[in-house]
Amino acid sequence: MLRIEQLTKTFGRNTAVDAATVAVDKPMMIGIIGRSGAGKSTLLRMLNRLTDHTSGRVSCEGREVTALRGAEKRAWQADCAMIFQQFNLVPRMDVVSNVLHGTLNRRSTLATLFNLFPAADIHRAIDILDRLGIAEHAPKRAEALSGGQQQRVAIARALMQDPKIILADEPIASLDPMNAQIVMDALRRIHEEDGRTVIANLHTLDTARRYCDRVIGMLHGRIVFDGTPEQLTTGVARDIYGADAGFSEAATSTAIEPVETAPERAVHGAKAIV
Question: Where is the ABC transporter domain (predicted)?
């Protein structure tokens, strides 16, 4: 399915990612862990083609991703959606229009300029928001939502692209524990229910152990661990984060209330093309 072969990125004399090699043969949820500066974000950005690689290659289902240009590159970026730590929403735009921006790659410049969307796309956006428990916020400005709600809007925008792969770059780093669990639960459900591959950079071991089928550890740009959550022992974690890092075998979990079900569907701001 997805092949990363000797993928390398250098910035001058600094090597951000050093000969990374990963094979993903079936849809799964993968967590990438490591210290700040380990190369996790650069790796994801190369997969999405937001950052060009220095050497190596990425391929998916027979398509050499690292060789794509123009429209083919944009089509890949629709197939491989990106979710960011800081949400990257348009704050003053209503929620449903932010979600509909996931369709920009297949819309005309005129439709984009006047914020025109097919009615079918609007209904689909609302369905996705409903699935994520935030349909009642559809007419609100994105800036009026909490951080956790904004991240779910960002996930909904990614789902509007109908991607094969979702890349999440530290999706819960700026969230409180309750919203972090809601977001991770949503990503896990998307993997299980849709059969999509989810690759997430994560900043806690417990999150990787709890949600991921596979964990990749990076240190100084190199992949130093690739295995199951059960294989991610305290000793391995110290190898990834450094011997001075403090870890315990017990996972710390917080009791969270279940995600509420969205009630009525309201859409304002986005204008339908009938």
Answer: 2-245
Average pLDDT (46-56) is 97
As given in the structure block, the two tokens for residue 234 are 């305290």
CA distance 185 to 155: 12
Phi/psi for 28 (5° steps) reads -155, 170
| Residue 243 DSSP SS3 | coil
- Candidates 198, 193, 192; CA nearest to 166 is 198
Report yes or no: 223 and 268 within 8 Å, Cβ to Cβ. Answer: no
Percent over 70 (pLDDT), the chain: 84
Share of the chain above pLDDT 90, in %: 78
Question: What CA–CA distance (Å, rounded) separates 188 from 165?
Answer: 13
Q: H-helix or E-strand containing 166?
A: strand 165-169
Q: Enumerate residues 6+ apart whose C-beta is below 8 A from 232.
A: 205, 208, 209, 215, 217, 225
165-168-170 Cα angle (round to 5): 165
- Read out DSSP for 59-96? EETTEEGGG--HHHHHHHHHHEEEE-TT----TTSBHH
d(CA 125, CA 118): 11
Given a cut of 90, is residue 39 above it in pLDDT?
A: yes
Which residues are 227's β-sheet partners? 215
